[in-house]
Write a structure and sequence with these properties.
alpha/beta, two-stranded antiparallel sheet, 11% strand, six-stranded mixed beta sheet, Uracil-DNA Glycosylase, subunit E
Length: 212
């Protein structure tokens, strides 16, 4: 079913329950992009992947710039880097709220926002989930596939980078944390996503449901 909204940022009106941000930063970096996207890039939190002052995921940081570069290469993103135009692509974080500089969200804070992330993910209903970094990848594999046990207690993100994993109604393509990329990592994920784009990927949801 097609979402009917003209809102690029926070298209479903999420209202997270707390504000622990520094002055001059947004209380939250909401989901952003095409609400009818087939591809959803999922980051960790604004302190890692950016957007605390722009309000847009994957901006302002080295990691954000790397993800934008991939998205632009694939034709998903156009226009200004602080407020790009996204087509067939949606960006969000497993923990959308900003917290005080110098710390990461606690486990309790991640848990508190989990239902908001889950509601947005299910509303977008993308075919391809692209988690960025170990925390986002671990969450997606645990909650949206039956495959997490295959990869051991600690995820080997070098091995998972650009690899497709069948989920419960999704295909998951993890991305290693961009600040840790080495030679060939950018090309590996671009090639993996290009191959999906060039396939009949809209059949993924039915196939993944049977396999995952």
């Amino acid at each position: 079913m097609k979402n009917v909204t003209d809102r690029t940022s926070n298209p479903f009106g999420m209202r997270p329950p707390f504000e622990r941000n520094d002055p001059g930063t947004h209380p939250a970096v909401f989901g952003y992009g095409d609400a009818n996207a087939d591809f959803q890039f999922i980051g960790d939190h604004p302190g890692v992947h950016g957007g605390a002052t722009t309000g847009v995921p994957f901006t302002e940081t080295e990691s954000g710039a790397a993800i934008q570069d991939v998205a632009r290469t694939l034709g998903f993103a156009h226009g200004p880097t602080d407020e790009p135009l996204l087509e067939n692509c949606f960006w969000n974080y497993i923990h959308m709220c900003t917290v005080e500089a110098g710390r990461s969200p606690t486990d309790a804070e991640y848990a508190e926002l989990e239902r908001y992330f889950d509601a947005e993910l299910r509303a977008i209903n993308a075919h391809i989930l692209v988690p960025v970094g170990e925390r986002a990848t671990d969450h997606i594999l645990r909650e949206y596939t039956t495959q997490r046990h295959r990869f051991g207690e600690s995820l080997d993100m070098d091995d998972l980078h650009g690899r497709d994993v069948r989920g419960r109604g999704f295909m998951v393509v993890p991305i290693r944390e961009p600040t840790e990329w080495s030679d060939g990592d950018r090309e590996r994920v671009v090639s993996a996503l290009e191959a999906i784009l060039n396939s009949d990927y809209r059949q993924t949801k039915g196939v993944a449901t049977l396999v995952g």
